[in-house]
Structures are given as structure tokens and as C-alpha cells.
Amino acid sequence: MIEVLIVLIIASLATSILGVFLVLRNQAMTTDAISHTILLGIVLAFFITQDIRSPLLIIGAALVGVLTVYLIQLINQTDLIKNDASIGIVFTALFALAVILISRYADHVHLDIDVVIAGEVLFAPLNRIEVFGFSIPRALWQLGILLIVNGAFVALFYKELKVSSFDPKFAYVIGFSTTLIYYMLMTLVSITAVAAFDAVGAILVINFFVAPVLTAYLIVKRLDHLIYLTALFAVLNSTLGYLIGYNLDLSMSGATASVAFIIFTIVFLFKPDGYIVLKIKKRRQRKEFMHAMILMLMNEDEHETVTPGEISRHFSLTEPETKKQLETLEVEGYVTRAEDRYRLTVRGEEFTHYSRIKYGLKAH
Amino acid sequence: MDKDIIKVNDLIVAYDDEPAIWHLNMALKENSITAIVGPNGAGKSTLIKSIMQLIKPVSGEVWINGSKSRKALKEIAYVPQKGEVNWDFPTTVLDVVMMGRYVHKGWLKRPNKKDREIAMSALRVMKMEAFRNRQISELSGGQRQRVFLARAICQNAGIYIMDEPLQGIDITTEKLIIKTIKSLQQEGKTFLIVHHNLDTVEEYFDHAVIMNKSVIAAGDIQDVWTKENIDKAYMEMGAG
Ligand SMILES: Nc1ncnc2c1ncn2[C@@H]1O[C@H](COP(=O)(O)OP(=O)(O)O)[C@@H](O)[C@H]1O
Ligand SMILES: [Mg+2]
């Protein structure tokens, strides 16, 4: 079973490393289209070779993947319809054609639509090949090579990928072919999507490409950090997905996709400038401000000693709230209590002085 | 100051069937600070994009240093109009400025320590070195413009082409940018700048191209900056 986990992790890493640049270029939808339309390439190549294991299937898929990108851009250039609409047209047209061809002519062979679309990593170890005398799952071999190729691509073309994703016009002007970079990226995306099919299926492949990136993107502010953190989330998502899928007897890729969503949500809520942390910070700020206001009031001559009742009326706080505030201030040594009257300590007086500066109020 | 470093001959540019530039001729004098002035929609950005070969003209030619090839563009540092890049991109100020060095690296080669030093000194010129590790999304409009000028300086090009660099920025940044431009002129650089504020043209520029689809007047600022020429450009809107 450990082989299943390894396949899942390698698939996750090989896809998400390219996913970094897909997200940065707003190409998630194009990727989704590719991951479906390449089925047409697989089918056509299968008709030629009649062999479901032929490497020609990967080439066919890559060609249709690039064709998909080209057609989307072609329709975009007409300016007749919006980008997402042209993606939709190309996506559905090519994918439908593939499905028709399969159900009409390839029903008898093992081109099981269910498996291609939904994927099942559990089957991966069943289909093995010999590499240097070792028997390993074919998916692991293919995805392993692609992880190396994709990693090398990003490492070698890091600067070109960066500048053409950030400022394509500038990249063009200083002499880089943004079109070449884009098509290299999309070709690798197509090939990787085919290889990941077996493991994760066409529907969920998009999740593997972009989910770890979107999570990492919430936190980092540098491209190299984004890549490392993406890899970390890719491993985390697939490991947790594997454990959950294994123990609850669910689809592993489905579980991985769900984990990815949950982790994204958690990071979104708890990241340093995220929703929860901001709420907590706001509350603390309000509390500190209230403390300062109480101390400043007590620094005025006519309020040298006060009762909780006076304070609660002055600031329209409830009595228990006021009591809690005063108790905190007493513990922290800013006020002292004699029976039910409070007065400032020296420390409290100093604090009011700094508070005035902090909140930009004029000196007393 | 007599050589024409950029020449535009009989340029026509259209978006679909809508001509944005019509039989335009102009020349950029070497070592000048030249303003491109004209009303909204006059085709100023289109002219600049045509020079940068980002748009394919219907007809006409652009010569840069006597060449029409794409390589000649490397002699130009281009600062696009605001908002043309992805501001949420995970990259720091120093990173962006360093991109100016990429033009000297070509494919595959990485910038080195020397490039980093050049980038840092460009940041110092624009008084942005303290912000070098900031993500660009955390900058104000004026700071962003400073970063882009620093990137241009880092490129060490002979010609600077900028599209409304002073639009919507604070006065301190405006003064700093103008001061920097004037001192770069002393070093022999040439500037072509789209400018929107008619009140400061005479103070900032020594040459001007007044245009509205085609050139109304061009040349030395003393000769062309007349009420008559300005009126002509701003009254003829949409006349073609
Ligand atoms: N991408 C575009 N597609 C269609 N029309 C455009 C496009 N860009 C500019 N235009 C039109 O071309 C004309 C000139 O635009 P532009 O060069 O941006 O003017 P300026 O920079 O002087 O304000 C305007 O009428 C504008 O609406
Ligand atoms: Mg413009």
C-alpha cells in the first residue's frame, strides 16, 4: 500500500510545481479544459496504435493539449466572446468528441470512461513495469520522470517564468518570447495531466494542479517561498488524503481534494492577517484602548479616586465588565484599591502619559 | 542633441476598423526630454506601444537607432502605464528592480551579485532601499512608480519611454522622478514621456510632440508650446 501513497505524493508534486505558474497567470480554467480535452488525444492515438500502453498516447494527449490552448487563444483574439466562454466552447467541443468516439468505437476495450474521469490510485500498483530490474508501478515511473522534468523546467527557466508571468509586455520588450514560455509550460501541463490521469482522474487533476498553490499563496510574498510551500502542502494534502481514504474506504484522490479544501479554509481563517487573527487583534486593541481610557479618566483631578459604579456610568459599560477591567488593571499594577475606591499608581500615571502619545491625544 | 534616435515614418495604427493613429511622423532627438501631449484617446499610448512593437501597425515604420529589428528594443527602458502588471504577484521590490538586469542576461542565465549591487544602487537613487523586501502589493502608487523607474535605471538603457509616469502620484515622488530624469539626461540619456498635466510641460521638458491621431506640432518646447497648438490638439477631438 505504501506504493499508493508514493504515487499520490509524486503526482501531487509533479502537478503543483507547474500549478504555481498556472495560478499566477490565471490559467486554472485553461488547465481544467486541458485535463479533459487530452482524452481526445488519447482516444485518437489509441485508434492508430490499438495499444492502450503505447507511449504514443502521451504524445497524442500533449498535441491535443497544445491544440486546446491554441484554439482558446484563437477564439479570444477575435474579441467576439470573453475568455471564460472561449475556454468553455473548446473544452466541451473536444471533450464531447472524445466521449462520443469512445462510446461509439472503443466500447470493447479497456478505455473505461469511469476510470479515466474519476481515476483510482488504488489500481496503480497493479500495472507494473520493470526498471533496472526493479518492478515498480508504471504510474510511479511516469510521474517520477515528469516530476524531474517539471522541476528542471522551473529551475532552468525560473527567471523567464517569473518575468513573463509578472509583466509579459516587459518580458517581450527585453527580448524573451513569452509565447514560447507559455507553450512550453502548457505542453508540460498536458503531459503531466495524462500521466496523472491513472492516479487521480480528469475531474480532480485540476485540484492537484492548483489547490496547494492557492493555499500557499495565502501566506507567502516571494515566488521561491511560494514554490517550497506549495510542495509542502502538496505532500501534506496527499498524505492526509491517503490516510483518510485508506481508513474510511474512500476514493484517495477524492479524499485528497477534500483535504486540500479543508486545509485551504483553515489557512484562510488562521493566517497572520486572516479572518480569525484579525478578529482577535481587534478585540485586544479594543480592550487596550478601554484600559487606557479608564486610566486617563483617573488621571484627571476630579476623578482621582473612583468607584466601579462611576466608571461604568461614565463609559456606559456594564458593572461586571467594569469590574473585570479594573481587576485586570489592579493585577497589572496600574491601579490600587482601598475598599471600593480605585486610584492610579505611579506606574499607571506613566502609562497614561504613553497612551496619550500612542493615541495622538494632547498632554493632560 | 541633433541626432534623431527614434524615427516614426507615416505610421497608421488601427483597432479593428478604428484608426487610433493616422499618418503620424515624428522624431526623438538624442539626449532630449520629450513630452508627448494630447487629449484622452489621442493615441499617445498606442504610439508608444507601436514603438515598443507591442502593437502591429497597419502601415508605416519605426526606426530605433537606425534599426527596425526587435533587438533594437533592448536599448529602451519601457515604463508602462499604471496597472498593467499583476500587483498581487508574490515578488519583492528588489526582485522587480532586478528584472531590469534580465535584458543583459538572455535565456537561462541567472542574475549575480554584481546585478544585485546595480539593483540596490538604482533603489537608492529612487530612495526605496528601505523597502527592498516589501511585497509590491504593499506599496502606494507613488512608491510603485519609483520601483518601476528603478527597474528602468537598472536596465542601463540609452532611451527611456514612459507612459504617464506622473499620473496619480504624490508631489514628493513627482519631484524626485523629475530630478532623477534631469540628472540622467546629464549622463546622455534620452526620454520620451507621455505627460498629462499641461501646467508643468514647460518646466519639465525641453521638447514636445503635441498630437491628436497625427502630430499637430513637434520640436523645441519654445517653438511648439503655444496656445494655438494646444487648442488645436484639444479642440479637434474625434475629428481624425
Ligand atoms: N485595445 C484596444 N482596443 C480597441 N480600441 C482601443 C484599444 N486601446 C485603445 N483603443 C482606442 O484607441 C484610441 C487611442 O487610445 P490610446 O492610445 O490609449 O489613447 P491615449 O493614451 O492618448 O489616451 C482610443 O479611442 C481608444 O479607445
Ligand atoms: Mg494612455
UniProtKB/TrEMBL annotation, chain A:
InterPro entries per record: ABC_BtuC-like, ABC_TroCD, WH-like_DNA-bd_sf, WH_DNA-bd_sf
Keywords: Cell membrane, Membrane, Transmembrane, Transmembrane helix, Transport
Subcellular localization(s) per the UniProt record: Cell membrane
Topological relation to the membrane, as annotated: Multi-pass membrane protein
Region forming the signal peptide: none
One Pfam family per UniProt: ABC-3
Primary location class: membrane
Domain of life: Bacteria
Transmembrane segment boundaries: 6-24, 33-50, 56-75, 87-106, 139-158, 170-193, 199-219, 226-245, 257-278
Family: Belongs to the ABC-3 integral membrane protein family.
The protein's name: Manganese/zinc/iron transport system permease protein
Automatic annotation (TrEMBL), chain B:
Domain ABC transporter: 6-237
Parts of the chain that traverse the membrane: none
Record Pfam families: ABC_tran
Signal peptide: none
Keyword terms of this UniProt record: ATP-binding, Nucleotide-binding, Transport
PROSITE patterns, alphabetized: ABC_TRANSPORTER_1 (PS00211), ABC_TRANSPORTER_2 (PS50893)
GO molecular function annotations of the record: ATP binding
Stored InterPro entries: AAA+_ATPase, ABC_transporter-like_ATP-bd, ABC_transporter-like_CS, Metal_Ion_Import_ABC, P-loop_NTPase
Family classification: Belongs to the ABC transporter superfamily.
Protein name, per record: Manganese/zinc/iron transport system ATP-binding protein
Lineage: Bacteria, Bacillati, Bacillota, Bacilli, Bacillales
